[in-house]
Design goal:
Layout: E1 3-5, E2 12-14, E3 16-19, H1 32-44, E4 49-51, H2 59-69, E5 74-79, H3 84-98, E6 103-111, H4 114-119, H5 121-132, E7 136-143, H6 146-152, E8 160-163, H7 177-189, E9 193-196, H8 209-217, E10 224-228, H9 232-242, H10 249-256, E11 262-264, H11 273-277, E12 283-286, E13 291-294, H12 304-308, E14 314-316
Parallel strand pairs: 3-4, 3-10, 4-5, 5-6, 6-7, 7-8, 8-9, 9-10
Antiparallel strand pairs: 1-2, 11-14, 12-13
Helix pairs in contact: 1-2, 3-5, 6-7, 9-10
Length: 317
Protein backbone atom coordinates (compact mmCIF):
# COMPACT_ATOMS: atom_id res chain seq x y z
CA UNK A 1 0.00 0.00 0.00
CA UNK A 2 1.25 3.46 -0.91
CA UNK A 3 0.95 6.24 1.69
CA UNK A 4 0.93 10.02 1.30
CA UNK A 5 1.06 12.96 3.67
CA UNK A 6 -2.40 14.56 3.47
CA UNK A 7 -1.34 18.11 2.62
CA UNK A 8 -0.46 20.23 5.62
CA UNK A 9 -2.39 18.04 8.07
CA UNK A 10 0.67 15.97 9.00
CA UNK A 11 -1.47 12.83 8.65
CA UNK A 12 0.01 9.99 6.61
CA UNK A 13 -2.81 8.16 4.85
CA UNK A 14 -3.14 5.15 2.56
CA UNK A 15 -3.94 6.18 -0.99
CA UNK A 16 -6.99 3.92 -0.84
CA UNK A 17 -9.47 5.32 1.66
CA UNK A 18 -12.28 3.02 2.80
CA UNK A 19 -15.61 4.73 2.08
CA UNK A 20 -17.97 3.33 4.71
CA UNK A 21 -21.30 4.69 3.46
CA UNK A 22 -21.98 1.63 1.31
CA UNK A 23 -21.76 -0.90 4.16
CA UNK A 24 -24.17 0.88 6.49
CA UNK A 25 -27.94 1.17 6.97
CA UNK A 26 -28.43 3.54 4.04
CA UNK A 27 -27.09 1.01 1.55
CA UNK A 28 -25.94 -2.62 2.01
CA UNK A 29 -27.05 -2.63 5.66
CA UNK A 30 -24.48 -5.24 6.67
CA UNK A 31 -24.72 -6.70 10.14
CA UNK A 32 -22.55 -4.96 12.71
CA UNK A 33 -20.18 -7.92 12.81
CA UNK A 34 -19.93 -8.16 9.00
CA UNK A 35 -19.17 -4.47 8.61
CA UNK A 36 -16.61 -4.37 11.39
CA UNK A 37 -14.89 -7.50 10.07
CA UNK A 38 -14.61 -5.94 6.61
CA UNK A 39 -12.95 -2.85 8.11
CA UNK A 40 -10.54 -5.07 10.04
CA UNK A 41 -9.67 -6.93 6.82
CA UNK A 42 -9.06 -3.61 5.06
CA UNK A 43 -6.83 -2.37 7.87
CA UNK A 44 -4.84 -5.61 7.73
CA UNK A 45 -4.34 -4.95 4.00
CA UNK A 46 -2.83 -1.53 4.80
CA UNK A 47 -5.88 0.76 4.49
CA UNK A 48 -5.43 3.11 7.44
CA UNK A 49 -7.85 5.80 6.21
CA UNK A 50 -11.62 5.44 6.80
CA UNK A 51 -14.26 7.93 5.65
CA UNK A 52 -17.64 8.35 7.31
CA UNK A 53 -20.21 11.05 8.19
CA UNK A 54 -22.75 11.67 10.90
CA UNK A 55 -25.58 11.27 8.38
CA UNK A 56 -24.39 7.77 7.42
CA UNK A 57 -25.50 6.38 10.81
CA UNK A 58 -22.65 3.88 10.79
CA UNK A 59 -20.41 4.88 13.70
CA UNK A 60 -21.13 1.54 15.47
CA UNK A 61 -19.33 -0.36 12.67
CA UNK A 62 -16.22 1.73 13.11
CA UNK A 63 -16.33 1.54 16.90
CA UNK A 64 -16.47 -2.26 16.86
CA UNK A 65 -13.69 -2.45 14.26
CA UNK A 66 -11.50 -0.17 16.37
CA UNK A 67 -11.92 -2.50 19.33
CA UNK A 68 -11.00 -5.49 17.18
CA UNK A 69 -7.81 -4.02 15.73
CA UNK A 70 -6.65 -2.25 18.87
CA UNK A 71 -5.01 0.42 16.75
CA UNK A 72 -5.90 3.84 15.44
CA UNK A 73 -6.63 4.39 11.74
CA UNK A 74 -7.18 7.91 10.44
CA UNK A 75 -10.93 8.53 10.54
CA UNK A 76 -12.63 11.37 8.68
CA UNK A 77 -16.18 12.37 9.53
CA UNK A 78 -18.38 15.32 8.62
CA UNK A 79 -21.42 17.26 9.67
CA UNK A 80 -24.19 19.38 8.17
CA UNK A 81 -23.93 21.76 11.14
CA UNK A 82 -24.36 25.45 10.33
CA UNK A 83 -23.77 26.94 13.77
CA UNK A 84 -21.53 26.37 16.77
CA UNK A 85 -24.10 24.49 18.85
CA UNK A 86 -24.82 22.03 16.04
CA UNK A 87 -21.11 21.58 15.34
CA UNK A 88 -20.42 20.88 19.00
CA UNK A 89 -23.23 18.32 19.14
CA UNK A 90 -21.96 16.59 16.00
CA UNK A 91 -18.39 16.42 17.22
CA UNK A 92 -19.42 15.11 20.64
CA UNK A 93 -21.66 12.52 18.99
CA UNK A 94 -18.70 11.28 16.95
CA UNK A 95 -16.39 11.19 19.98
CA UNK A 96 -18.91 9.29 22.10
CA UNK A 97 -20.17 6.84 19.46
CA UNK A 98 -16.68 6.09 18.13
CA UNK A 99 -15.28 6.03 21.67
CA UNK A 100 -12.44 8.36 20.69
CA UNK A 101 -10.99 11.35 22.48
CA UNK A 102 -9.73 12.86 19.22
CA UNK A 103 -11.32 12.72 15.76
CA UNK A 104 -8.47 12.94 13.24
CA UNK A 105 -10.48 14.76 10.54
CA UNK A 106 -13.80 16.58 10.87
CA UNK A 107 -15.41 18.41 7.95
CA UNK A 108 -18.40 20.46 6.87
CA UNK A 109 -20.52 18.22 4.67
CA UNK A 110 -21.48 19.05 1.08
CA UNK A 111 -20.45 22.67 0.76
CA UNK A 112 -21.39 24.35 -2.52
CA UNK A 113 -19.68 27.76 -2.76
CA UNK A 114 -18.11 30.67 -0.91
CA UNK A 115 -21.64 31.68 0.07
CA UNK A 116 -22.44 28.38 1.79
CA UNK A 117 -19.05 28.37 3.48
CA UNK A 118 -19.65 31.87 4.76
CA UNK A 119 -23.11 30.82 5.92
CA UNK A 120 -21.55 27.93 7.85
CA UNK A 121 -18.77 30.07 9.31
CA UNK A 122 -20.01 29.74 12.94
CA UNK A 123 -19.75 25.93 12.62
CA UNK A 124 -16.36 26.22 10.94
CA UNK A 125 -15.10 28.52 13.70
CA UNK A 126 -16.21 26.01 16.33
CA UNK A 127 -14.39 23.18 14.56
CA UNK A 128 -11.25 25.29 14.30
CA UNK A 129 -11.46 26.06 18.03
CA UNK A 130 -11.89 22.32 18.69
CA UNK A 131 -8.75 21.73 16.64
CA UNK A 132 -6.89 24.18 18.86
CA UNK A 133 -8.15 22.28 21.92
CA UNK A 134 -6.83 19.03 20.48
CA UNK A 135 -10.23 17.41 19.84
CA UNK A 136 -9.70 17.43 16.05
CA UNK A 137 -6.46 17.20 14.11
CA UNK A 138 -7.66 18.63 10.78
CA UNK A 139 -10.67 20.59 9.51
CA UNK A 140 -12.04 20.53 5.98
CA UNK A 141 -15.02 20.41 3.64
CA UNK A 142 -16.58 17.89 1.29
CA UNK A 143 -18.18 19.03 -1.95
CA UNK A 144 -19.67 18.13 -5.33
CA UNK A 145 -18.93 21.52 -6.92
CA UNK A 146 -16.00 23.28 -8.55
CA UNK A 147 -17.08 26.50 -6.84
CA UNK A 148 -16.60 25.01 -3.37
CA UNK A 149 -13.08 23.84 -4.18
CA UNK A 150 -12.19 27.33 -5.39
CA UNK A 151 -13.79 28.85 -2.29
CA UNK A 152 -11.84 26.61 0.07
CA UNK A 153 -8.61 28.26 -1.07
CA UNK A 154 -9.95 31.54 0.31
CA UNK A 155 -10.44 30.06 3.79
CA UNK A 156 -6.92 29.63 5.23
CA UNK A 157 -8.30 27.88 8.31
CA UNK A 158 -9.18 24.84 6.19
CA UNK A 159 -6.72 21.94 6.07
CA UNK A 160 -8.26 19.72 3.41
CA UNK A 161 -10.94 19.18 0.78
CA UNK A 162 -12.90 16.03 -0.10
CA UNK A 163 -14.16 16.77 -3.65
CA UNK A 164 -16.04 14.70 -6.19
CA UNK A 165 -13.79 13.73 -9.10
CA UNK A 166 -13.84 11.02 -11.78
CA UNK A 167 -12.65 10.88 -15.36
CA UNK A 168 -16.16 11.33 -16.79
CA UNK A 169 -17.19 14.15 -14.44
CA UNK A 170 -20.25 12.18 -13.28
CA UNK A 171 -21.93 13.97 -10.38
CA UNK A 172 -20.10 17.31 -10.63
CA UNK A 173 -22.88 19.85 -10.26
CA UNK A 174 -21.37 22.93 -11.86
CA UNK A 175 -18.73 21.94 -14.38
CA UNK A 176 -16.68 19.32 -16.16
CA UNK A 177 -14.03 16.90 -14.93
CA UNK A 178 -11.38 19.19 -16.44
CA UNK A 179 -12.72 22.22 -14.56
CA UNK A 180 -12.86 20.30 -11.29
CA UNK A 181 -9.36 18.98 -11.80
CA UNK A 182 -8.01 22.48 -12.47
CA UNK A 183 -9.56 23.73 -9.22
CA UNK A 184 -8.17 20.76 -7.28
CA UNK A 185 -4.69 21.31 -8.69
CA UNK A 186 -4.78 24.93 -7.54
CA UNK A 187 -5.91 23.91 -4.05
CA UNK A 188 -3.11 21.32 -3.97
CA UNK A 189 -0.55 24.02 -4.75
CA UNK A 190 -1.85 25.97 -1.74
CA UNK A 191 -0.96 22.99 0.45
CA UNK A 192 -4.47 21.69 1.08
CA UNK A 193 -4.93 17.95 1.58
CA UNK A 194 -7.11 16.44 -1.15
CA UNK A 195 -8.86 13.09 -1.15
CA UNK A 196 -11.34 12.40 -3.92
CA UNK A 197 -14.80 10.86 -3.76
CA UNK A 198 -16.97 9.10 -6.37
CA UNK A 199 -13.95 7.95 -8.36
CA UNK A 200 -16.24 5.23 -9.72
CA UNK A 201 -19.10 7.66 -10.32
CA UNK A 202 -21.40 6.10 -7.73
CA UNK A 203 -21.16 2.76 -9.52
CA UNK A 204 -21.70 4.10 -13.06
CA UNK A 205 -18.03 3.42 -13.85
CA UNK A 206 -17.82 -0.03 -12.30
CA UNK A 207 -17.48 -1.63 -15.73
CA UNK A 208 -14.33 0.43 -16.29
CA UNK A 209 -13.13 0.41 -12.67
CA UNK A 210 -9.49 -0.24 -13.54
CA UNK A 211 -9.42 2.70 -15.93
CA UNK A 212 -11.26 4.98 -13.49
CA UNK A 213 -8.96 4.17 -10.57
CA UNK A 214 -5.84 4.42 -12.75
CA UNK A 215 -6.95 7.89 -13.87
CA UNK A 216 -7.28 9.05 -10.26
CA UNK A 217 -4.03 7.43 -9.12
CA UNK A 218 -2.08 9.28 -11.80
CA UNK A 219 -3.23 12.63 -10.39
CA UNK A 220 -0.46 13.93 -8.15
CA UNK A 221 -2.94 16.37 -6.60
CA UNK A 222 -5.02 13.54 -5.10
CA UNK A 223 -3.41 12.31 -1.92
CA UNK A 224 -6.02 9.55 -1.55
CA UNK A 225 -9.15 8.09 -3.17
CA UNK A 226 -12.23 7.26 -1.10
CA UNK A 227 -14.04 4.27 -2.59
CA UNK A 228 -17.15 2.76 -1.04
CA UNK A 229 -16.93 -0.95 -0.26
CA UNK A 230 -19.44 -3.39 1.20
CA UNK A 231 -17.95 -6.82 0.47
CA UNK A 232 -14.70 -8.72 0.51
CA UNK A 233 -14.89 -9.00 -3.28
CA UNK A 234 -15.05 -5.21 -3.64
CA UNK A 235 -12.15 -4.81 -1.24
CA UNK A 236 -10.09 -7.42 -3.09
CA UNK A 237 -10.82 -5.92 -6.51
CA UNK A 238 -9.99 -2.37 -5.43
CA UNK A 239 -6.72 -3.47 -3.83
CA UNK A 240 -5.80 -5.09 -7.16
CA UNK A 241 -6.75 -2.00 -9.18
CA UNK A 242 -4.67 0.18 -6.86
CA UNK A 243 -1.66 -1.92 -7.85
CA UNK A 244 -2.52 -1.84 -11.54
CA UNK A 245 -3.51 -5.50 -11.50
CA UNK A 246 -6.64 -7.37 -12.54
CA UNK A 247 -8.63 -9.23 -9.89
CA UNK A 248 -9.38 -12.91 -10.43
CA UNK A 249 -12.01 -13.94 -12.97
CA UNK A 250 -14.16 -15.36 -10.16
CA UNK A 251 -14.08 -12.05 -8.29
CA UNK A 252 -14.98 -10.09 -11.42
CA UNK A 253 -17.81 -12.51 -12.22
CA UNK A 254 -19.34 -12.16 -8.76
CA UNK A 255 -19.08 -8.37 -8.86
CA UNK A 256 -20.62 -8.18 -12.33
CA UNK A 257 -23.72 -9.91 -10.97
CA UNK A 258 -24.18 -7.17 -8.37
CA UNK A 259 -25.88 -4.05 -9.72
CA UNK A 260 -26.66 -1.42 -7.09
CA UNK A 261 -29.77 0.69 -7.47
CA UNK A 262 -31.96 3.07 -5.51
CA UNK A 263 -35.30 1.62 -4.44
CA UNK A 264 -38.23 3.83 -3.42
CA UNK A 265 -40.63 1.84 -1.26
CA UNK A 266 -44.40 1.81 -1.82
CA UNK A 267 -45.07 3.75 1.38
CA UNK A 268 -43.41 6.94 0.03
CA UNK A 269 -45.67 9.89 0.92
CA UNK A 270 -44.17 12.38 -1.52
CA UNK A 271 -43.10 14.76 1.26
CA UNK A 272 -40.15 15.96 -0.82
CA UNK A 273 -37.45 15.97 1.86
CA UNK A 274 -35.35 13.61 -0.26
CA UNK A 275 -35.74 15.91 -3.28
CA UNK A 276 -34.24 18.78 -1.27
CA UNK A 277 -31.40 16.54 -0.06
CA UNK A 278 -30.45 15.15 -3.48
CA UNK A 279 -27.43 17.05 -4.84
CA UNK A 280 -27.94 15.69 -8.36
CA UNK A 281 -31.61 16.54 -8.96
CA UNK A 282 -32.31 12.85 -9.48
CA UNK A 283 -35.58 12.83 -7.52
CA UNK A 284 -38.82 14.64 -8.24
CA UNK A 285 -42.22 14.62 -6.58
CA UNK A 286 -44.79 13.22 -9.00
CA UNK A 287 -47.91 14.86 -7.62
CA UNK A 288 -50.27 12.76 -9.77
CA UNK A 289 -48.88 9.66 -8.05
CA UNK A 290 -48.46 11.23 -4.64
CA UNK A 291 -44.87 9.98 -4.39
CA UNK A 292 -41.29 10.58 -5.45
CA UNK A 293 -39.91 9.15 -8.69
CA UNK A 294 -36.31 8.62 -9.77
CA UNK A 295 -34.41 9.95 -12.79
CA UNK A 296 -32.00 7.03 -12.99
CA UNK A 297 -29.57 8.69 -15.38
CA UNK A 298 -28.93 11.45 -12.79
CA UNK A 299 -28.52 9.25 -9.69
CA UNK A 300 -24.97 8.61 -8.42
CA UNK A 301 -26.09 6.49 -5.44
CA UNK A 302 -24.75 8.93 -2.86
CA UNK A 303 -27.36 7.91 -0.27
CA UNK A 304 -28.16 11.46 0.88
CA UNK A 305 -31.84 10.97 0.03
CA UNK A 306 -32.14 8.02 2.39
CA UNK A 307 -30.66 10.02 5.24
CA UNK A 308 -33.30 12.73 4.71
CA UNK A 309 -36.34 10.45 4.44
CA UNK A 310 -38.46 10.49 7.62
CA UNK A 311 -40.25 7.29 6.55
CA UNK A 312 -37.08 5.30 5.71
CA UNK A 313 -38.45 4.40 2.29
CA UNK A 314 -35.31 5.01 0.21
CA UNK A 315 -32.58 2.41 0.21
CA UNK A 316 -29.70 1.47 -2.07
CA UNK A 317 -29.45 -2.27 -2.76
Amino acid sequence: MEYRLLGKTGLKVSRLCFGTLTMGPLQANLSLEEGASLLVEAFSAGINFWDTAESYHNYPYLRLALKKIGSMPIIASRTYASNAAEAEASLEKARVELDLEVIPIFMLHEQESALTLEGHRPALEYLCAARERGLIQAVGISCHTVAAVKAAILFPELDLIHPLINYRGIGIKDGSAAEMLAAIETAYKYGLGIYGMKVLGGGHLNASAKEAISFALELECLHALAIGMASLDELTANLCYMQGKDPSEDTVARLSQTKRRLKIEDWCTGCGYCVEACPQGALVVEHSLGRVVLRENCCILCGYCGAACPEMCLKIF
